[in-house]
UniProtKB/TrEMBL annotation:
It comes from Gadus morhua. GO terms for biological process: N-glycan processing; oligosaccharide metabolic process. GO terms for molecular function: alpha-N-acetylneuraminate alpha-2,8-sialyltransferase activity. Keywords: Disulfide bond, Glycoprotein, Glycosyltransferase, Golgi apparatus, Membrane, Signal-anchor, Transferase, Transmembrane, Transmembrane helix. InterPro entries: Glyco_trans_29 (IPR001675), Glycosyltr_29_Sialyltrsf (IPR050943), GT29-like_sf (IPR038578), Sialyl_trans (IPR012163). It is a single-pass type II membrane protein. GO terms for cellular component: Golgi membrane. This is ST8 alpha-N-acetyl-neuraminide alpha-2,8-sialyltransferase 6. Disulfide bonds join 82-228. Belongs to the glycosyltransferase 29 family. Transmembrane segments: none annotated. The lineage of its organism: Eukaryota, Metazoa, Chordata, Craniata, Vertebrata.
């Protein structure tokens, strides 16, 4: 924690003008965003999908093919400004909502609340939102589906990124989400995260010293570097004390439920993000937004 405090003057003062070209950060995945999600163009019927979270594979059946996006949603020109919003407690009382929503594209993680009580701090604009496996398995949609549909309405027509092919057990929960969205005529657009893209991302960051499974927040921050010219991170602070105000923080801006620390290496991920901030590749926001 103290090592980060010594480097926080950069975070308060901002970064140097100009951003490094995205491909300088991740040459192994440059243009990888074209395969970040599975589509009918890049995943025809009969394709073999190798799970990225465990050994095993499955074939693309016609039923699965019909649930895939017809075209790559990221095929157009990259956005100029993107906000990537983590769920860290540091967002509480940050007044960053307006600044977050001012970006052309906003990415959120793990279906976070964006109701009016959080609007001032986190905003509500959403272009893409992730849903991790634990959330899908907790809400298997085997019973009443209306609460899930109602909760999705806060994201309007955003893309919802589903981890269907991380493990075999995630396929059916992800498909139930797709079918629920279709049956309810919700405007939200489900897409499946491509395990090939995840493997390439893990391979790149493993070569940089990150050997544990990447968190969803770190994955979409990496994706944003390929999609956006100027990337701004909010809510990325993996410690329980505010770096500037020296006060205790909840784990999330909406609750204090602790994460499974053995699965991800959040401080190590933050260290890499901090290096990218210092190089001017992205900008991390930790103080109040004024």
């Amino acid at each position: 924690f103290c090592n980060y405090i010594l480097r926080l003057s950069l975070l308060v003062e901002g970064v140097n003008d100009g951003f490094l070209h995205n491909c300088q950060v991740s040459k192994s995945t440059c243009q990888g965003y074209t395969k970040a999600v599975m589509t009918q163009e890049n995943t025809p019927v009969g394709s073999q999908i190798v799970y990225d979270g465990a050994k095993g594979n499955t074939s693309v059946t016609s039923d699965i093919f019909d649930t895939l996006a017809k075209k790559n949603p990221f095929s157009s020109k990259p956005w100029d400004t993107c906000s990537v919003v983590g769920n860290g407690g540091i967002l509480s009382n940050s007044t960053c909502g307006e600044m977050i929503d001012s970006a052309q594209f906003v990415i959120r993680c793990n279906l976070p609340p964006v109701e009016s009580s959080h609007l001032k701090d986190v905003g509500k604009k959403t272009g893409l939102v992730t849903a991790n496996p634990s959330i899908l398995n907790q809400n298997g949609l085997l019973d009443r589906r209306r609460p899930f549909v109602d909760s999705m309405s806060h994201y309007k027509d955003a893309l919802i990124l589903l981890p269907a092919f991380t493990l075999s057990k995630n396929i059916q929960p992800s498909l139930r989400v797709v079918y629920t969205i279709e049956e309810s005529l919700s405007p939200i657009r489900p897409v499946f995260l491509n395990p090939e893209y995840i493997r390439n991302l893990h391979s790149f960051w493993s070569s940089k010293g990150l050997n544990k499974r990447l968190s969803s927040g770190f994955m979409v921050a990496s994706l944003a570097l390929e999609l956006c010219t100027n990337v701004h991170l909010y809510g990325f602070w993996p410690f329980d004390q505010h770096p500037l105000l020296q006060q205790p923080l909840n784990n999330h801006y909406y609750d204090n439920i602790q994460s499974k620390k053995k699965v991800h290496a959040m401080p190590d991920e933050f260290d890499h993000l901090l290096r990218l901030h210092e190089q001017g590749v992205l900008k991390i926001h930790l103080g109040e937004c004024v």
